[in-house]
Model the fold of this input.
Amino acid sequence: QVQLVESGGGLVQPGGSLRLSCESSATVFSIYVMAWYRQAPGQQREKVAGINGVGITNYADSVKGRFTISRDNAKKRVYLQMNGLKPEDTAVYYCNAYRATSLTEYDYWGQGTQVTVSS
Done:
């Protein structure tokens, strides 16, 4: 079992920045694909950004150019730098760790951290 703990959420004005952090308890962190998802009230959870063990990234169109995902395998952490925040970015943000083998899948979630963008 892998535990994920997010931090860094909060209230920020439109145009502002926040940096989310997620710490993993995984014994070998680098084998997991890490991602950030978000869920706004009344909406489905959506993937914001992902990064594999060697640093290849992907982003939702809505955040491209504003958000940056990164990871530090030695510290077992993944980060989400969010710039140019908009009110529509308001959501609970979740950290996810995923790994697939030929036999099974491993899919772990953090408890979430609230991000509110409002003036």
Remarks:
- Residues 18 and 82 are 5 Å apart (CA to CA).
- The mean pLDDT is 96.
- The two ends are 40 Å apart (CA to CA).
- The chain has no helices and eleven strands.
